[in-house]
Each structure stands twice: as structure tokens, then as C-alpha cells.
Amino acid sequence: MNPNAFATLPLTATFLANLDSLGYREMTDIQTKSLPHVLDGRDLIAQAKTGSGKTAAFGIGILHKLNPAWFAVQGLVLCPTRELADQVANELRRLARGEGNIKVLTLTGGAPMRPQIASLEHGAHIVVGTPGRIRDHLGRGSIDLSKVQTLVLDEADRMTDMGFYDEIAGIVSACPSRRQTLLFSATYPDDIRRATELFLRNPVEVVVEAQH
Ligand code: ADP
Ligand code: MG
Questions:
Q1: Which positions fall inside the DEAD-box RNA helicase Q domain (predicted)?
Q2: Ligand 1 atom nearest 6 alpha carbon
Q3: What distance in Å separates the CA atoms of residue 182 and residue 59, rounded to the nearest whole number?
Q4: 163-205: per-residue pLDDT in tens?
Q5: Could you tell me the CATH number of the domain that includes residue 190?
Q6: Is residue 10 part of a domain?
Q7: Domain annotation covers residue 16
Q8: pLDDT truncated to tens, each residue of the chain (212 aa)?
Q9: Is 53 a pocket residue for ligand 1 (Cβ < 6 Å)?
């Protein structure tokens, strides 16, 4: 079989059919390198340039483990900006089609708190947001992260550059210590490595080198 075929992964026929309907004919390089470890439950550090398909590499992992019948925040994705959070949430919603009624909520700054609190009261399976705003919800007690199974730090280099480290550390400590943590980044310099390694447990590292 084609080693880049999604069908090499332990995914259901429904899930594979949905990927096909999204036009995902085969895995990108970072997906081929990451997804077997992600679906195996391992922590992961994945480095690949923008546009390489990192969202599906963690999105498929979150959805694979998610229980739609359990109305708790099981997946949490931290992104540096509102625009990126919206993009990730939209991709997750497309990937989740056919998996039942999966609620993906975005929580980002610049929007009023109260509607976000109301949405959290209604419940969500996956939250995608910026560190500052998620930290605000934690401080108010309006979000419960104690059921998070999969924590994703997306664009970890940019989040660190933007000074979100303390917020991220606070959010991580509100998640269960028994969880899967996935870190995605375009670059992974030593200072970010030192800052983030505490968040991960024995991670697999995968890199897709930029094409020259
Ligand atoms: P990154 O996070 O690495 O910058 P994205 O996850 O945003 O990249 O993906 C870039 C684009 O590629 C998106 O439009 C996404 O829908 C598309 N894409 C991702 N994986 C695949 C795939 N396996 N086949 C076809 N298109 C894909
Ligand atoms: Mg991305």
C-alpha cells in the first residue's frame, strides 16, 4: 500500500471517507511522520513549515480519541492569534463531519467574555483559543480543563515569541498530568526547547526539512 495513504492509519471507514470528501487523497510529509505516533498516544514535537498540513496532524489525533457522548473539554488547542484559532477550529469542524455532533468552540481575545462563558456553559468537546483568553477563563472559573485528553501547542515558536509563556504554563498546570501533549512549530530553537520541554513527556520528535 502507498505509505502515505490515510488508510495505513487505524481510522474508521467513515473517517477515511470524510478525508476523501475533503480532497485529502494522501498524507503530507509531516502527517506521515507524525500521525502514527499521535494515534499511538505518544507526546510529540513536530517541526515543519507553514502550509505543510500540521492542523490535520493533530486534529485527527484529537478526534480519534474523542468521545462525542461525553460533553467535556477533551481537546485543547492553543494558538498565537485569533485568525489562526479560527482557521484551526474550521479545519477541526470539517475533519469532525460524520463523527457525530462534535462541538468546537473558539475562545480568543477581543471578543466579549460573556457570550464565551455562555457557550462554555452549554458545553464543548474541543476548545481552540489564545493563551491570554483561556487564562482569563481559568481565572474566572468559567472553563474546566480537568478532562483534557489532548493538549496541542500550535505555532509554539510564535506563541513563545509573543510572550505567552506564563499563560501557557498556567494553562498546562490546569490540565491533567495524564494527557497527550503535541507541540507543532515552524522552527524549534534551543530557547523554545528549554522553555517547553517540561510540558511534554518523553516526546517523539519529527522534522520535515524545508525544501530548497
Ligand atoms: P500548517 O498548519 O502546517 O501551516 P495547515 O494545516 O493549515 O498547514 O494546512 C494547509 C492547507 O493544506 C490547508 O488548506 C489544509 O486543508 C490542506 N491540507 C492539509 N492536509 C492535507 C492533505 N493531506 N491533503 C490535501 N490537503 C491538505
Ligand atoms: Mg498551522
A1: 4-32
A2: 23
A3: 10
A4: 999 999 999 999 999 999 999 999 999 999 998 999 999 999 9
A5: 3.40.50.300
A6: no
A7: no
A8: 899 999 999 999 999 999 999 999 999 999 999 999 999 999 999 999 999 999 999 999 999 999 999 999 999 999 999 999 999 999 999 999 988 899 999 999 999 999 999 999 999 999 999 999 999 999 999 999 999 999 999 999 999 999 999 999 999 999 999 999 999 999 999 999 998 999 999 999 999 987 65
A9: yes
Angle at 170 between CA 167 and CA 175, to 5 degrees: 125
Length of the chain equals 212
Question: Between β-strands 104-107 and 126-129, what pairing exists: parallel, antiparallel or unpaired?
Answer: parallel
* Residue 4 maps to a domain: no
**118: in domain:** yes
Count of domains for the chain = 1
CA distance 31 to 6: 9
* Domain encompassing residue 46: 29-207
Atom 23 of ligand 1 has which residue's CA nearest to it? 27
Q: What angle do CA 13, 60, 135 make, to 5 degrees?
A: 150
Which residue minimizes the CA distance to atom 13 of ligand 1? 53
